[in-house]
Each structure stands twice: as structure tokens, then as C-alpha cells.
Amino acid sequence: MDNKIFRYPQDPLPPILGTKVLVGGCFDLLHYGHLSFFKAAKKLGDNLIISLEPDLTIRRLKQASPIHTQNQRAEILSELLCTDYILLLPELHNYDDYLMLVKTVKPDFLAVTKGDPQTVNKQKQALEIGALVIEVNQVIEGLSSSLIRRNHL
Asked: Which of 10, 28, 84, 114 could be 47's S-S partner, Cβ–Cβ 3.0 to 4.6 Å?
């Protein structure tokens, strides 16, 4: 496995110098909106850490099988210059599971897209560790994995 990719919670991240920015999602069909989000998030700090949802979560949230497996998605993401670390998540079930992730990573910033439905929860989690939640971009009209899947596949 790539030296940027770690399986959470089994594989601890190495010691990280500088500020940490945590983002999360499925990122099954990588598109321009994702890239602009990652680049904007990376500008907040020295290290961009992507927490990558498992295939089961994609099936549950999108009501469809993933196009790429979690390992394939991680490999694609690891090739982006702005990406420093990728955490392969198991299926996390509730607020406390995600809080444990945030407490483990200890980011300085949690980057979100404007309108992220989990912003309130992420703000509460960030408060627990003294981090900030920052909206780094807006959804780009017509660019979502669900729309691409529905209209082009």
C-alpha cells in the first residue's frame, strides 16, 4: 500500500509536523469539484488528510454500488499533489465514531463545502479538540458524483 495510505484505526499516522487539515467523504467519482475542494482545503495548512468512507457507506448513502473500491479510490487520491495522507475508514455508525476519528487525528482545521449537512456535527467535534471548521468552497453547479452517475453512466 502507498506510504500516504493508512487503515484507520489500525494504522496510526506517523508524526506530522505543521498544521493538519482534515476532510472526509466518499470521493467515488473524482471530479473537478473534488479537486477544487482539496486544493482549497490544502491552503489552510501544511498537511491535507482525507478520511475516505468505505464501500458500505457509499451503498448506504448513494443507494448504489461504488464505481471504485475504497482501495482504488485511495490510490487515485494518493496521486494528487495536494494530498498528504489518506485514512481508509471502516464503517462509522454515529457521531461518537466520527468524534473518535477527529480526536485521533487532532486536526487544526476541518474543511467543509458550504452546505455540508454534517457541518453542525463537525463544529461540535472540532470544539472538543480546539480545531476550527472552515467552509473552503461551494458546491459547483452540476458537479456531484450522484449527478454524474445519474446523467452520464
From this structure: 84
